[in-house]
Amino acid sequence: MGGGLIISDFVISFMWVWSGAVIKMFVNGVLGMGHEPSGEVVKYILSVINMFVFAWLGKMGAYNPLTVLSSAISADSNRFLLTLGARIPAQIIGSITGVRLILQTFPEIGFGPRLNVDIHRGALTEGLLTFAIVTISLGLSRKIPGSFFMKTWITSVSKLALHILGSDLTGGCMNPASVMGWAYARGDHITKEHILVYWLAPIEATLLAVWIFKLVVGPLTQENKEMPKRKSD
C-alpha cells in the first residue's frame, strides 16, 4: 500500500509539472497567443480542465506536499512518518525529474516561478495563499463530501484565483515540490529565499489552517454527530 502511494506520488508529480509546461507551450507556441488577453483566457480554461484531471488522479496519489501533509497531521504516527519520509520526497524527485526532461525537450520554456519581491513579502504572500486554499479544501471536504464535480470546480477556481493574485510576486505556487523542481534546475534550491518562501511559509500556513479549522469546525461537527443520539433518548 505504502509503496504504491510513493510510486503514484512520483508519477503524478512528474505529470503535473509536464502538464503545466504543455499548456504553456500550446498557448504560446502552437496558438501563438503569448501574453495576449485571449491567450491568458485559454490558459486559464486549460488550467481548470487540467486540475479536474489531476483531482481524479488524486484518488491514486498526490502532487502537492501540502495536500498530503494536511491530511496526515491528524492521522496516526505511521501515516505521518510515511508522508514526511517517503511521499513528500517522492513528489520532490518526481518534480525534479519532470523539470529536467522539460528543459531538455523545450529549453526555451524558461526556468519556472521566481521571487520578485523581498523575502518577507514573499513568505507572507505564499503563506496567505496557502492558508486560504487549505481552509477552502478542508471546508469543502466537510460541507459537500459526496459531490466530486462541485468540490473540484470550487477548488480549481479558487486555486486559479489565488494563483493570479500571487503570480507577479512569488508565482502564486502553493506547491513546494513543483517549485523545488524549477529551483533545482536553476541551482538555487538551497537558498534562504527558496526555503523560507516556498517551504517554511506554506508548511506553517498549512499547520495553522488545519489547527484553526479543527478549533472552529471540530466541536460543531462533533455536536452534529451527537444530535441523533439525543433525539433517540
Shape designation: globular
Oligomer: single chain
Q: Strand portion, in percent?
A: under 5%
Provide the structure class. mainly alpha
> What number is the mean pLDDT?
86
Report how far apart the termini are: 42 Å
Name the helix and strand elements from N-terminus to C-terminus, one letter apiece: HHHHHHHH
Helix content: over 70%
Largest sheet: none
The helix count comes to: 8
Instruction: Return residue spans where pLDDT drops below 50 for at least 5 consecutive residues.
Output: 219-233
* DSSP E strands, number: 0
Task: Give Rg in angstroms.
Answer: 19 Å
Structure explained in plain terms:
- By secondary structure, the chain is mostly helical.
- It is 79% helix and 0% strand.
- The chain is built from eight helices and no strands.
- The chain has helices at 2-30, 37-57, 65-72, 77-105, 119-143, 148-166, 176-186, 192-232.
- The longest helix has 41 residues, at 192-232.
- The chain is globular, with a radius of gyration of 19 Å.
SSE blueprint and pairings:
Elements (H helix, E strand, L loop, with lengths): L1 H29 L6 H21 L7 H8 L4 H29 L13 H25 L4 H19 L9 H11 L5 H41 L1
Helix pairs in contact: 1-2, 1-4, 2-6, 3-4, 4-7, 5-6, 5-8, 7-8
